Amino acid sequence: IKQLEFQLADEPVLGNWRITVWNNNVTESETFEVKEYVLPKYDVTIKFPPYVLANEEIISVEVCTKYTYGKPVKGILKLNASLERYSYSRDKTPVLQETIEIDGCYNYTLNISRIEPDNVYRYRRIMVVANVIEEGTDVQRNATEYLQRQYLPLNLNFNTDQNYRQYYKPGLPYNGRLKVTNPDDSPAAGEPIEICATVSRKRIIFGWLANKKVKYCSNYTSDYKGFIKYTLAPQSTDAESVQLEVKKFQNSYLEDYAVSNKAKTLENLSIVDLLIKKMALSHLAGPLAKTCQI
């Protein structure tokens, strides 16, 4: 197979053209059309919220259509909403169809239960298709957008700054930062967060090895940038490890979120790594489901 290009003239004759290729006794022909390129008169856009949680029941969708010079388009909007469909899937889910007049923008309220009545396909993206027919000309423009729902209401991250100290020394306080963000990575301000430190201690008492764990908890609130500054009290030399656990208070229950970090101590210290406990939340409808993984 060989691909070649043929440059047309600056002002070619419009219409149907035929190109013929021959090699020895074999001849092939193909017809193509040369026509003037016309920029689209108007565009159609579909806008979802910045993020949507998997347990949301109502989603706001905005459909807008404007001419290239900014003026709103008047016409008929045909809107379809459904779950994303796979070619290999045999199951059928409802498709909502709506036809209304549009003048620039239209705000559509999507009830999730109407396209997902059994709540078993939350992993699928939501698909919205908008077809606009311009008033007076019947020119049509289409747009399709997909929305992936999120399972974690918040993202918690200890690795907020490369310059932040990733180790601690016995006898000195450890200052750290926690970053709290929404699923779209925007800062989550004013979020109540509890940080607990479990200190594991080992010491020899009268020839016997004694183990002890002590847990300290403090409540914090994320600032307008989504950061929380916390301080770990000075630890004695018998502290073998420190485990941090992060929880968010909401209503009357605790929600655990996925966080991970591993801060190294100085090599000349006897204290081992500062470990951050990994927590995961399965944020589903009904009773809160929790899983913990270290």
TrEMBL record:
Domain of life, per the record?
Answer: Eukaryota
Q: List, for all copies, the residue spans of the domain called Macroglobulin.
A: 36-116, 164-262
One family from Pfam that matches here is MG4
Residues spanning the signal sequence: none
- InterPro entries, alphabetized: A2M/Complement_sys, Ig-like_fold, MG3, MG4
Check the record and name the PANTHER family matching this protein: MACROGLOBULIN / COMPLEMENT (PTHR11412), PREGNANCY ZONE PROTEIN-LIKE PROTEIN (PTHR11412:SF171)
List the protein's name.
Answer: Ovostatin
Q: What is the organism of origin for this protein? A: Araneus ventricosus
